[in-house]
Specification:
The protein has about 425 residues and is of the alpha+beta class. It has helices spanning about 5-20, 40-45, 110-120, 130-135, 145-150, 170-180; strands spanning about 35, 55-65, 90-100, 125, 160-165, 190-200, 225-230, 245-250, 255-265, 270-275, 280-285, 305-315, 315-320, 325, 330, 345-355, 365, 370-375, 380-390, 400-405, 405-410, 410-415, 420, 425. It folds into three domains: about 5-200, no CATH class; about 225-325, Immunoglobulin-like, CATH 2.60.40.10; about 330-425, Immunoglobulin-like. It contains six helices and 24 strands. The strands form six sheets. It has a six-stranded mixed β-sheet with strand order 1-2-3-6-5-4.
Amino acid sequence: MSSALGLSAVTAVLQCLLYSVYHNSNSVLANVKVSGVAPDLVAGSQGANGSDAQLQVNVFLHQVTPNAALRNIGFPTLAADGSTRLSNPPLALDLHYLLTVYASQDGEAEALLGYAVQLLTDNPVLTRSQIRAILAGVPASNPLAGATLLGASGLADQIEMLKISPATLGREEMAWLWTALKSDYRPTFPFQVSVVLIQTPTQVTSPLPVLTRTVKAQPNFLPVGPVLSSVSPPNGSAAALPGDTVAVAGTNFTGANAVSLVNARLGFSQTLPLLAGGTDSSIAFKVPNPQPPTSPPTDIPAGVYLLSVQVAQGADTLVSSSLPLALAAILTPAPASPITRDAQGNASVSVTCSPFVRAGQEVFLAIGGQSAPALAFTPPANSLSFAFTGLAATSTSVPIRLQVDGIDGPTIDFATKPPSYLGPLVQVV
């Protein structure tokens, strides 16, 4: 496959081919310049009236489009977790060129164009040996540092060979194109080069082939593997906290040995053991809450996770479908009450929390109905500072809670009838 320099390599190959046409013993034209820049740059170098214009042939890449036949090759690239790379699919591109000739004497432009069109017609396919030879001889004057850089593009080694085919542009398209280029029209031949395959050679997952397959017949429509029906934090809460025991309900949990938590946005995953006493339809696990906190942290950051259950069946491990589980952060402990404001209603509040907050997480502290973002911190951190502006005083104590990635800390106690504020509570004076 080609590297990102494949586009430059194609243009260099075309330039060298055209140069060889005009600078050989059979050519009736001499001192022809071959370039690969925008037409307006060529026009600027041709003089005010073009009467003393140098003979010049310009190859301009005016459009790059995805190749319709190969654009979906190699997909999907990522696994279901959104981070595990499965393959490096090539980017298949078609290159659209304008070949324009410049001359000041009668018949010269037509002669230049005739030689160029004949070359492209006689070379509908650029062979690998041809590309290698041309790129090995790119002159040092080339802005891209010549052979060393372009020769390493891999253009000659890609799976698909380069094919040159004429293109058709109507009068309106051609007029619009030259108007956009802000240059006077010159005799032009549009053509297309297809296909350039650009690929990034990054590390991918490469599973081993399956040695044996076990096929079993089941006389009913019941699921064979584990199936989740619900994930329940304690006390009817919407989110689990560090140290909480989370109940998981479902079917076919016999042999379950762990649960997996995956947060694709943070690129975080962890496998947790189950608590004793699980049944075929109910299991439980505990959210880690290391005490005292360690740095670097070993806790699970707050956020929304996809939870799945792992069940051992002989030598195999079955993985269930996934259900979301929200993990919240708690204040440890709550800031001292009351919180004092200055004359303008500004207040600075510092808190400690569990779990640690990681880089890229959005953190807010809410006091009653007002919230403020965390000041800049060096992740990971469990000590955070917040600057409130225009903070309103409260006549009584109000709930204070930490919000991490949109997940609120504990605020309501659903175990009481009716529900009540769980706390912690602070007053603003």
